[in-house]
Amino acid sequence: MVDLFPSKNAMEHKTHLRRLGLFDAKVPRFTSYPPANRFSGDIDVATTQSWLTATPHGSEVSLYIHIPFCRRLCYFCACRTQGTKTDAPLERYVRTLIAEIDTVRDQLPVDVTVRRLHFGGGTPTLLSPDYLTALLDALHGSFGLDDLDEFSVEIDPTEVDKARIDVLARYGMNRASLGVQDFDPRVQKAIGREQGFDTTRATVDLLAEAGVDEVNIDLLYGLPFQTMGSLEKTIDQVLQLNASRLALYGYAHVPWVSKRQVVIPFEALPDPETRFDLFERAQKLLLGQGYLQVGIDHFARPHDGLARAMIDRRLARSFQGYTDDRVPRLIGLGASSISKYPEGYVQNQPATAMYQGMIEAGRLAAARGVVLTPEDCARGALIEQLMCYFDASLSALHDPYPAANQWLAHLADEYPEAIDFGGDRLSLRRWARPLVRVMAAQLGQTRTTPDTYSAAI
Fold first, then answer.
1. Helix %, strand %, coil % for the chain, to 5?
2. CA 152, CA 205: separation in Å to the nearest integer?
3. Helix (H) or strand (E) holding 155
4. What is the pLDDT of residues 50-79, one digit of tens each?
């Protein structure tokens, strides 16, 4: 794998990126198009029901289960979560999830097949073995889990044990995603995520004993008090865990979205150019150890499904980041979960109490969403190509769209030194790849303001 800046012109390239606005830009992450802040209340329960019932016989679907509860609320996190010191809220939540599973299943053809199952949160492993068993029994009884290609679970190493892992493995878990963020004690204290390396390694060992060898590790750069030396040490420790897949996300400081982030000392955050240097250093370390870079922030061993999907151009973007899951229907279950259908996106009621009330009344819990127009589909497909491969081709569009060539041509005119354009195909030069989110925002006609999105780098 070639380094991002392989030539003697590295400083010149960084100067170009500065001039083109990389270090000042605030743009979406484009895990969906349109972005979630364009969802509206026009998408309701009736719309969602119509999309579910329109699912053709014999369809394959993926399921996402959201568990919003955590024992501790990490300061850096902008996910929809809530703290609980006891298991009291979990029993009702699991009962509600089981009721939602039944309600959703009743809207679908009898012969749908579930190919992917993902437990996210929050902290899914906060659920006791009994609650996990009840939930998985319900999923298996309603959908059947025998044909799963992948069952992945987000795991907090400080909130899991052998009994929970054994239950998940018994029902087919074959990939685990472990949050690490950073192993430096000072950084951990500043972000409210104290988690030792030995604790994390013990969890990886438990997973291996249960037959789960595919492990993802989530890391963050741009954290308070993070330095080149501390990040290098974290990378060195992470490499000892031999994960098949790593995510290296830029910390998104958005206190207007996540109020708990006000606890993080702003003055301790690295500036955008330092963030860039931190990512570049981590990138070089990971590439040097045989990982392949996948898109803007993922790294995978050559055998991993994500790496193979990148090589075969089967990569996709979802609310979980990069994925090799190309199933057209992702059904989200639980408070705040997001579903994707060919017709559009829909998000469940984010407030847990309101979500539970809707489900317990026998209704779906849809709160907002967006209908995809042909133009949305075309722009979204081109943005996904850019985010996955740093190029975009009109020939890859599912349905031709008359103005698509003009969109690419306009982007090429905006960045003539950064883009190669051949009329129906656009490609970013290697040094310009960090600009991909900025370019995607232009391609998506996304209005950006400083208090709307996170930093582009």
1. 40, 20, 40
2. 17
3. strand 150-155
4. 999 999 999 999 999 999 999 988 888 878
